[in-house]
């Protein structure tokens, strides 16, 4: 599973989760750090990424355009990269099941 982390998440998260989500990237590492949401959306769609976000913008795009790409929406508020990593690790199996389900386009994850 390939995750594309949005600009409001630390680029360090990619390396911290490389054991679970190989071939993932951060928008900054693919030259999209200043790109508009529709441009990031198109990139994710063309390259087989699921977008990981902390705001509603991409969820709104998904409602308008459908999917792919799929969206993982982290409803965490302000938190550390370590807390984001823990959240994604805790929900690893749910994320894999979400990716395999062709009926669902957005997965919302809440802190414990």
Describe the structure.
The chain has helices at residues 12-16, 37-47, 57-65, 81-90, 92-100; strands spanning 3-5, 25-26, 50-53, 71-74, 106-109. The protein has one domain (3-109). It is built from 5 helices and 5 strands, in the order βαβαβαβααβ. The mean pLDDT is 93. Strand 3 (50-53), helix 3 and strand 4 (71-74) form a beta-alpha-beta unit. Strands 2-1-3-4-5 form a 5-stranded parallel beta sheet, sandwiched between helices.
Overall 3D form? globular
**Major β-sheet profile:** 5 strands, parallel
What is the typical, i.e. mean, pLDDT? 93
Strand order of the largest sheet: 2-1-3-4-5
Q: DSSP helix count?
A: 5
The separation of the N and C termini measures 23 Å
Write a concise synopsis of the structure shown.
The chain is α/β, with parallel strands linked by helices and 112 residues long. The protein is 39% helix and 15% strand.
Question: Keywords for this structure?
Answer:
112 residues; five-stranded parallel beta sheet; 39% helix; alpha/beta
What's the structural blueprint in terms of helices and strands?
Layout: E1 3-5, H1 12-16, E2 25-26, H2 37-47, E3 50-53, H3 57-65, E4 71-74, H4 81-90, H5 92-100, E5 106-109
